[in-house]
Structure formats: structure tokens, C-alpha cells
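User: Round two. Same drill as before: sequence, then structure, for each protein.

Assistant: Same drill it is. First protein:
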Amino acid sequence: MIKAVIFDMDGLLINSEPFWQESETKVFSSLGLDVNNKMFEQFMGKRIDEVVEVMYNMTPWNHVSKEKVTEDIVENVIRLVLEKGACLDGVNKTLENLQQASFKIGLASSSKMKIISAVLEKLQLQDYFEVVHSAEFEKYGKPHPQVFITTAELLGIPPSECLVFEDSLNGVISALAAGMKCIAVPEKDAYNLDKFIIANKVLGSLNDFEIPQLTDL
């Protein structure tokens, strides 16, 4: 029986993936690096410091630290969140319904905590979450499962009794590896892609979710 529901953030609660793409393109381009859509797809759900490490290993740069590159991307994302951030379809309805049904609700994101805080403040979602956890505090980010395992521990619920909502393949893999059920809510262009068949269920948006669906997982 599902007793806790854990949400990813980027691309699920807020359409922030374009913010990440814009920020990464801006910073990496300033270093003379090229990024493309295929790379962005592979980066989805990963920690930004791990993305920076991948880019550095592909094409090392000089004169600026990886930590500074990471921080520049993060600060640009926060600026865009505060300027343009908005809830995706069905977010408030789903959170409200789950809260009223007495499910424990957590958030487990690859984003740094300062970005999570900016998003929750901008969208006014703080009061829905009993636990908010960032993969920045784990040794590895998604698709490693630890961020979800830790979130379940903080909620006091076994992983087998947790459901995860995720929009990225890396996130789905992470949730399943943690021993949890997972509903994928990919972006519209990715909804019909075979790669999401590994999820327990795939939805077009959170608007399509109803609590009775939990019995079918």
C-alpha cells in the first residue's frame, strides 16, 4: 500500500528544463563549448556538478574552476525561476488531493537546495511537503537511488510503500532502483517514447492523475 508520495521538481512541478538549457548554453558557450539537444536530454535529472564534470572531461577548460562554472549556472537558473517560473498543469490539484487524503509528501530533487527553495517560494508550494531533500547532500545523484532512499527515511516510510512522480528517464531509473513505484510524467514531446515503458505508469500531465490509480500500480 502506498503511504508516501515523492515528487521530483524540475520538469514536473515547474517547467525549468528550458531555464537549465539556457543557463548551461550561456555558461558553456562562454568557455568555447558546444552543447546540443541530445546532450541536454542525457543531462536531464542529473546534478549540475556532475554535468559540469562530464563537460570538463570531454573538453577541459582553463582559467575558471568547475565550482565557479557550476555556481554561475545555478545563479542563472535561480534568476530565471524568479522571473518566469510557473506551476505545470495539475501540480496544485495533485498536491492538494494527496494532502487531503493524508499521504506523506516529499520532494527529492537533483537541484541544489538554493534552487529548490527559490522554486518552492516562487510557486508557493512549501506547505505541501513534509520533507524536502536535495541530491547535493548525497555522494551520487540520479540515476543513483540514494536521494529517494534518504527522502523515504526522512518521511519514515519504507521504499516499498512510496510512489515517485518523475519526468526524466534518469529519475525513473533512480526511483525504481530505490524499490519504489514510479509514475512518469514526461514532457509532451517525450510522452510516447518507448524508454518510459519501464515506469509503472505514464501520464501526459499531473492533471491526469487520480488517487484511485494507486491501486493499479
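Second protein:
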Amino acid sequence: MEGRQGRISFVNGPVIRGSNMKSFKMREMVMVGPNRLIGEIISLEGDGAVIQVYEETGGLKVGQSIVPTGKPLSVKLGPGIIGNIFDGIQRPLKRIDEMSQGFISQGIGLLSIDEDRKWQVDITTGLGEWLQQGQIFGRVRETPLIDHRLMVPPGVSGKVVYVKDSGTYNIEEVLVKLETETGEIIELKMYQEWPVRVPRPVKSRKAIKQPLVTGQRILDLFFPIAKGGTAAIPGGFGTGKTMTQHQLAKWSDAD
């Protein structure tokens, strides 16, 4: 990756332009400048690219390096998400506060979920079994109320050729190995790394049948919302978005 570095040619706040980037890919995650700020390629044209940087860009200079990672901007989905608070690129704010004393320093990196914490894992598969995408191969009691199911990632299937016993492990330890029909070995851990721009696949979706009574007649009449659905409140500064959210939180028919 180091052999195909790009160079900064323009900086305007969080948006930068780079040159010498023909071999880079659209939506690829890149590391920008000497502090390796996290960015994402949002446009490619000829030898150049436009990059959205998700950190403070103060101090960046024209000519500094842009290093590719070879993968899209992704997050880790696994035990440790519940009970934590993250920023938009899944950096845990509690750990950042401990490291930076209340401020997010440049180049603090993608720390994600705690890789050292041990979890009690109940393995539910065995050697020789054939597992397909979505099948459960283990369980983790993430909280007293939530049983986290460890599933085979989408697009993966194979025969179990290696499996650990139930026990205490961190999220980086390999729990199961699958051999696919082509002979490839796939390692399964407690988490799945998933690109943020790719929707998670579902087997089916339940039909929405019940309205959410918001307690705000203007919304219930002209902009009805369904329970289990989604809604957005667009608007400029001072137009009442937050006040509307306050009223919804106070009066809507929801737990």
C-alpha cells in the first residue's frame, strides 16, 4: 500500500483533494497526512480524488501523503457495542476521553470496541457440521438481558474444520474455522467487520401496521409515522427541529 501513496493538492476544511491517485478506489478508506487522519474517497476523476476527512484537518499541508488502506470504511459489529458511546466512525468516546482528557486528538485512530475484554462464549456447533450464512455458531451473554448470537457472515458457508470449546475469549480470537467448497479456510470471530455503505441483509421484514400517535396533531394528520418506522426532520438553524423532538419524546405513544 505504501508504494501507491497519493499527495494532498488542496485543503478546504474537512474536504481535501489529492493527486497521484489513479490506483485508489471509490469509497476506499485512506489515512491522510503525518497524523494518519481517517478519510474516505467520495469522488475520483483522472489522477485526482476528493476525500472527506472525518477528523480535524488543522495543520495539513499541500504535498503531504495520502495512504490507502485497501478496504472501505467499516465498523465492527459484535459484543461490546451495547453500553458504549461512539462517534460517527465508531471510536469509543469514553476511551478517547481517558486518552485525550476531554478532546479528540488528531490521529487518535479507530479504536472501535474493546479488543482486550474477555467474554464468556457458549459454542453451539461442532466439528464436521456444515454452516451457512446466518446460522448461529455461538452465544455471548452481553448484558443480563441480551443474549448476543454469533452468526456466520453473509455470503459464507462451509464445513467446520476447527472449533474452540466454550470458554472465555476476547473478540479477536478465532472461534471457528470453515472450509468452503473451494477449499478456502474462513475464520470466524465474535464480530463481523462490515462496510458502513452496505446495508445489512435481512431474510424478511415485518409489515408495519400500527401508527405511532405522536400527540402532535399537525404531525399525526399530515405526516403520520408508523411504529417501527423511521422519520426525518429537515430544517435550518432555529426552525424548531429540537423542540419537535422534545415534544415527540414527551407525548408520543412509545415506551
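Residues 119-195 form a domain with the OB fold (Dihydrolipoamide Acetyltransferase, E2P) fold (CATH 2.40.50.100).

User: Perfect.
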